[in-house]
Specification:
By secondary structure, the chain is α+β, with helices and mostly antiparallel strands. It has two domains: about 5-180, Ribosomal Protein S5, domain 2, CATH 3.30.230; about 190-305, Alpha-Beta Plaits. Helices cover about 35% and strands about 30% of the residues. α2 (about 90-100) packs parallel to α3, α2 packs across α4 (about 150-160) and α6 (about 200-210) packs across α8 (about 240-245). The protein binds cytidine-5'-monophosphate.
């Protein structure tokens, strides 16, 4: 990825020079509004063609501070930590260490705090968003010299969804997740994110997609007017595979659709669902409250945002 990349302008803004003592980065949820699995690759991964967006809630926060000792990253995890690695195997730490190693700065002391709200195993790209936020935050903290292409390449080596999270906004994502073409979609499109009380393993869903012979989802949802110009139909080819891995998804989705009065789309490999609708912030808040009461699960009244990671407070 040595060429000028779409999304490079935003990344260049984020990674401008200047050493700081402490940096805070907000990591946003990733939602796939259309996900077609194009085929299985020789390396075991799958080629995708997806329309992916960043949404404001839920979001995680990565804070990094320079410390005199010990060298390397000292990690603290707080919040919704179920199923999230607590040590150096956390993807945010691995991402930060990759950047520091590449920059020849592994010996520097960095204290990293990750405040989690995006649940693991929900298909919301939380780990990838944390990795992207860690890369951008440590780049600023240590004033590492690296261009947008270098950052995206580093992100891709950490996880398939990290390049999208580094760019964010609304992007057509292809290949394994590294071919990014930003699309014009205004920020502020409302969406509910509903999180069932069970989680799903992404590798298991992809394996089920293979075992089922590579199904194409026939459940196609008409897009709300705010996005219809960019994407007329919402669909997710991983839905049939995820439902085979976790049959409780079907019942959850049907209850969600009844409560929301609108169709729901599986987020990535699940288990969360997105519900898109037209209306004001007030409608989003009242709809979220209604669904929360009916299903007794966390429901975020969220909206699309123009990037995957934001430095400083929201
Ligand atoms: O790259 P990442 O570690 O996030 O991928 C997690 C798992 O998801 C992979 O091990 C693979 O099973 C599956 N995957 C895939 N094709 C992709 C992205 C992920 O098969 N494009």
């Amino acid at each position: 990825m040595g060429r000028a990349l779409p999304g490079g302008r935003l990344l260049n803004e984020l990674t401008r020079a200047g050493r700081l003592g402490r940096v805070r980065a907000t990591a946003y949820t990733k939602l796939t509004l259309a996900l077609r699995v194009v085929g299985r690759r020789a390396d075991g991964f799958h080629d995708l063609d997806a329309l992916t967006v960043s949404v404001a809630d839920p979001h995680d926060v990565v804070e990094v501070a320079a410390v005199p000792h010990p060298g390397g990253i000292t990690f603290e995890l707080v919040g919704e930590t179920e199923g999230v690695p607590v040590g150096s195997d956390n993807i945010a730490v691995r991402a930060g260490e990759s950047l520091m190693l590449r920059a020849g700065r592994s010996g520097h002391g960095v204290r990293m705090t990750l405040r989690k709200k995006i649940p693991a195993g929900a298909g919301l790209g939380g780990g990838s968003a944390d990795a992207a936020a860690a890369i951008i935050a440590i780049q600023r903290l240590l004033d590492v010299e690296i261009d947008a292409a270098g950052i995206l390449e580093l992100g891709a080596s950490v996880g398939s969804d990290v390049p999208f999270c580094l760019t964010g906004g609304a992007v057509r994502v292809r290949g394994r997740g590294e071919v990014l073409d930003p699309v014009e979609l205004a920020a502020g499109v409302p969406v509910l994110v509903a999180i069932p009380p069970f989680r799903i393993s992404t590798p298991r869903v992809y394996a089920a997609w293979d075992e089922l012979g590579g199904p194409r989802s026939r459940r196609i949802i008409e897009a709300p007017p705010a996005i219809a110009g960019v994407l007329p139909e919402l669909v997710n080819d991983l839905e049939p595979a995820a439902e085979a891995v976790e049959p409780r998804l079907v019942e959850f989705r049907e209850a969600l659709e009844r409560a929301a009065g609108a169709p729901a789309l599986l987020a990535g490999s699940g288990s969360a669902y997105a519900v898109m609708f037209s209306g004001s912030d007030e409608r989003a808040t009242s709809l979220a409250r209604k669904v929360r009461r009916a299903l007794k699960v966390p429901v975020a009244a969220s909206q699309t945002v123009s990037r995957g990671v934001r430095l400083g407070s929201r």
